[in-house]
């Protein structure tokens, strides 16, 4: 199996960039949409926004029945959200769980689904981690500096996206160069030893466009262990996190009919954190006493050729590659501690996608994919697992129709068939209609679809005798069936309100089965359901002041135990506001309210307890001194609320940040 060290990964990145510049190799994953001007959070222009993830091609949200939220680069900059996990906090129907501050393991729950039930795409590249036991990506290491937009698509989406899209899809699109050459740079500092920098070179000329971004994020001292868990006379060491992310998106319009593109993204992150000491058992656990370190490198690359032989008929041929490397070192200040362990997950995808415009408002999309996943782990310690390797593949084909059956109506329907080398076939679908009533302009929409999640390589093939783990190659995919129904109602020209009801059923969920002799394996025994409602009100009070309110109600149940699922708050609310009192000055505010939820304590010796939830308020201000220089500042957790999410891990308290941004024009 291919293994790339951090240095080799960096060489790979720069060689990809140089080779593309010299030879114009094929390019990026999916067409980038320019963010709408002046479409900040809370405007009443929601129906005019564009979504790519909902259908696979740029489509006005008003022409889809899907529940989708779009966060533009402008919104991210106004709110000064530097990490994806911070940016996603405000999205309805979605819950973020992060082990402490920046860099702590971060999971996303969409409409009550498990974290590994979310498909994550970066410029169309599947970002899930084949080396992870449950296959999910850790959102902690994703920065926002190079992002043009984030789309969150809720509900089962396997009919278009295949495996993992049970709860929904989170899609990231990086920035594309346009116009004259521009250089921009930003520096900021603040609480918890934060010192961040970023720069970007972008532009286009003679058919060639380019965008190269470099970002460095550091939070050197974030307290994570709650004071009531610090052992007597124990040290309370804060978390240290450092992240370097480099990305390049390049494209060349060879002829009017033929275009080649390339996108590459590499991140190198280090997290130092404290774990718990169980060595004195049966004495009480010493929480947060062992200093550990995690190294994480992620490489994502896509090369693409786009051919449009006739108007309205577009063909895309692409190759994707991802490599996610993790190194874990325990008790780093103890010279007698265990040796580091490594894991590497790789994915290679060959892809064809075509779309044909039958007539205005009527389009057929179709495609085929071949994926190959590899897993490699290495534990050199005495009585360790040694080296383990596994691989599997999947072949898929799909078709989608976007139709306008009559005036004011739209319909999107897709069907997909997957053939997995490990467990065989899976067929999924999705249908999403939308209709705008005359006179009242009420928009009615809905969707119904199925989803599936493949067993991971870890679950299928890894036997680890030292911890009693037994592989189960007979595992079947997890499955879901879900639907939603919604309306959106404009009230005049400045107000838009709406609500959505959703319901999802999950079957064949993979859970742990304990066996005699202190052994365990994974089996398909789980069943669960989730249902609830999402509601919003978007108001443009004046030409300079706008706001938005969102509320999510989520009810979950494990149908085997008849208990509520962990870490799914029943109530979540958020409010955003944007005010531009004078040209060049922008103020924004974000409030997030998380209601009580069920969780276990830090070591799960108490498997179920009630977490009271929390409320945070963030404020940000941006001021353009002139066309080339801007200053900014923000306050996070304004009232210094102490909260734990998950239980046993302290969220960041009051924090103040500020900095300056410069550009060539």
Automatic annotation (TrEMBL):
Any single biological process term in GO: cobalamin transport
Domain named TonB-dependent receptor plug: residues: 62-169
Topology versus the membrane: Multi-pass membrane protein
Transmembrane annotation, as ranges: none
Listed GO CC annotations: cell outer membrane
PROSITE patterns tied to this protein: TONB_DEPENDENT_REC_3
Keywords of the record: Cell outer membrane, Ion transport, Membrane, Receptor, Signal, TonB box, Transmembrane, Transmembrane beta strand, Transport
Localization (cell): Cell outer membrane
Secretion signal span: 1-29
Domain TonB-dependent receptor-like beta-barrel: 192-638
Pfam families documented for this protein: Plug (PF07715), TonB_dep_Rec_b-barrel (PF00593)
Family according to the record: Belongs to the TonB-dependent receptor family.
Name of this chain's protein: TonB-dependent receptor
Species of provenance: Methylobacterium gnaphalii
Biological classification of the source: Bacteria, Pseudomonadati, Pseudomonadota, Alphaproteobacteria, Hyphomicrobiales
